[in-house]
């Protein structure tokens, strides 16, 4: 059943990405901030102490060197009038987070102000959607990060969310990151359940396949089945930018992940 859900969800994301690709190509990416020199920790708000930034940079770089995966944290003052979903996707694309297998993850946080609610999103690249599916990203946000944010402990919420995602990825890829615990069982208690939303998604995709008919739809489903059944993806990719800093490796957002507000 889990494999079927993965196939159908992937198919829906494939349709969604096709529809949105043209819109993304027309976007002016110069309106978004450039990545930090050290790439993995970007903070416009002075929420993160230097020691926390160094922790993120060092551990994300260690993960990158061992697996090719890039995990980036961005704390921003505003979302340029966009939803946090659109902002995160476009920032992910501009910074090219992840390697050639699209193994990247971006945590975006916009702190709460006197006039605006706080928002957070975990944006997941194609290559990590099996590791951090939407359900698991939602649990990290709702059960770990937002409770800290509501306590007005922004830095702790960001760091806790970062460490959990890093631990999950490291465990899935079979590597150890110094000072990071494995979180291989995080969120497993809800796996296997089908929510009403998932049921609706399955129904919509089923109707699309019936109406589309023909050999093309079956071939697409077969391709997705093979993709979902493949082993853990690893490998090295990406690269360093000049002058000792780090840079993106050409990865793309998968449109997956989850968002929350407080």
From TrEMBL:
Signal peptide start and end residues: 1-21
Ranges of residues in domain TPM: 42-162
TM annotation in the entry: 194-210
Highest taxon in the source lineage: Bacteria
UniProt entry keywords in alphabetical sequence: Membrane, Signal, Transmembrane, Transmembrane helix
Pfam families per the UniProt record, alphabetical: TPM_phosphatase
InterPro entries named among the record's database cross-references: TPM_dom
Name the UniProt record assigns to this protein: TPM domain-containing protein
Organism phylogeny: Bacteria, Bacillati, Bacillota, Tissierellia, Ezakiella
């Amino acid at each position: 059943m889990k494999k079927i859900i993965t196939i159908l969800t992937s198919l829906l994301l494939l349709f969604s990405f096709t529809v949105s690709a043209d819109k993304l190509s027309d976007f002016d990416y110069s309106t978004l901030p450039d990545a930090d020199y050290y790439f993995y920790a970007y903070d416009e708000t002075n929420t993160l102490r230097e020691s926390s930034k160094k922790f993120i940079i060092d551990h994300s770089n260690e993960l990158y060197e061992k697996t090719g995966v890039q995990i980036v944290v961005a704390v921003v003052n505003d979302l340029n009038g966009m939803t946090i979903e659109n902002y995160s996707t476009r920032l992910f694309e501009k910074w090219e987070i992840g390697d050639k297998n699209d193994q990247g993850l971006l945590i975006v946080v916009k702190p709460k102000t006197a006039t605006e609610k706080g928002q957070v999103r975990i944006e997941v690249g194609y290559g990590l959607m099996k590791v951090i599916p939407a359900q698991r990203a939602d649990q990290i946000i709702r059960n770990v990060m937002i409770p800290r944010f509501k306590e007005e402990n922004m830095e702790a919420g960001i760091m806790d969310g970062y460490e959990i995602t890093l631990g999950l990825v490291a465990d899935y890829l079979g590597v150890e990151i110094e000072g990071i615990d494995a979180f291989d069982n995080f969120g497993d208690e809800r796996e296997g359940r089908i929510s009403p939303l998932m049921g609706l998604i399955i129904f919509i995709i089923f109707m699309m396949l019936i109406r589309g008919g023909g050999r093309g739809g079956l071939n697409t489903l077969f391709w997705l089945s093979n993709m979902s059944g493949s082993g853990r993806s690893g490998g090295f990719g990406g690269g360093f930018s000049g002058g000792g800093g780090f840079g993106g490796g050409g990865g793309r957002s998968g449109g997956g992940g989850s968002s929350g507000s407080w």
